[in-house]
Each structure stands twice: as structure tokens, then as C-alpha cells.
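Batch manifest line 186
LIGAND: zinc ion
JOB: complex structure
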Amino acid sequence: MTTAVFAVSLVGLAQTNPAKKAVKATEDATKDAADATVKTTKKAATAAADATKDAASATAKTTTKVAKDTASATEKGAKVTAEKTKDAASATAKTTTKVATATAAGTEKAAKTTAAATAKGAKATASGTEKAATATAAGTEKAAKAVVPDSERCIAKTADGDRCKRKAAEGSKYCWQHDPNKKAKS
Ligand SMILES: [Zn+2]
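JOB STATUS: finished
ARTIFACT:
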């Protein structure tokens, strides 16, 4: 633009109606305000949308994490329960086996003890029987020896009227108790 054209324009502006100028300024101000409002509203809407999106994303992330944690905890719990159940079953099996072994051992021991006691009893009975037989034989022999032959017996009679069973003293027909000579002396 040349200096001459610029000068003409300034003259034109100076000749403009002040009222028209004011209307134009109001229109411009209104337009600017409307534009500013639209921009602000648009910006606010965008910010709100972004915030909602962020919140939704955060919620989704949190939900996913909670779901994963819950699944992990559940899986861990299931494993712990399974292990505990396995341990309990193993302990029960071991105890059962131990009890069965102890019972078997006890039964075997009892059988052995009974057998030993029976054998001991049988031996004792045999020993007792043998001892009794020996004693009886000895008694019989002793009894047989105790019987004094009639030729050697005292000829006196007892108070019951039976013949004295004692052996007569040597050189006498009587025993020491029934000897008449001894009696006469006393
Ligand atoms: Zn006699």
C-alpha cells in the first residue's frame, strides 16, 4: 500500500458515523464474547470428556487389578487348602500305618508271650509231675522200708490191741518202750 492510499483510508474512517461505529464495536464485542464462550465451553467439554475418559480408564485398570488380585488370592487359597488336605491325609495314613504296625507287633508279642507262658507252664507241670512222682516213689519206698518184718517187731500190744509196729531192741523181743526189764528198773 502506498502512502497515498493509506491516507485516503484514514479520511474514510474519520468520516464514519459515530453511531454506526459504536454498533460495529458492540457487534464485534458480542462476537468475540460468543467466540470466547464457545471456546471456553468447548475447552470445558473437552476437559470433562478427558476427565471422564481418565476416570473410566482408572476404574477399568483398578477393576482389572482387583479381579487379578482376587483370582490370584483364590488360586493361592485353593493351593494352600489342597496342600493342607494332602498333609492331613498323609498324616492320617502314617498314623493308621503306625497303629496297624503297633497292633500287629502287639499281637505277635502277645502270641509269643502266650506261647512262652504255655511252654513254661507245660515245663513246670512236667517238672511238678516228675517231682511228685519221684516224691511218691520215695515215699512208697520209705513206707516200704518203714514196715518192720514180724520177726523183728516188738511183740507187745498197744492200747488199741494191735501189735506194736516198732522194731524190737537188739537181744530183746520188745522195743525200748515195751521192754519189761527196762520197766522193772524204773
Ligand atoms: Zn513195742
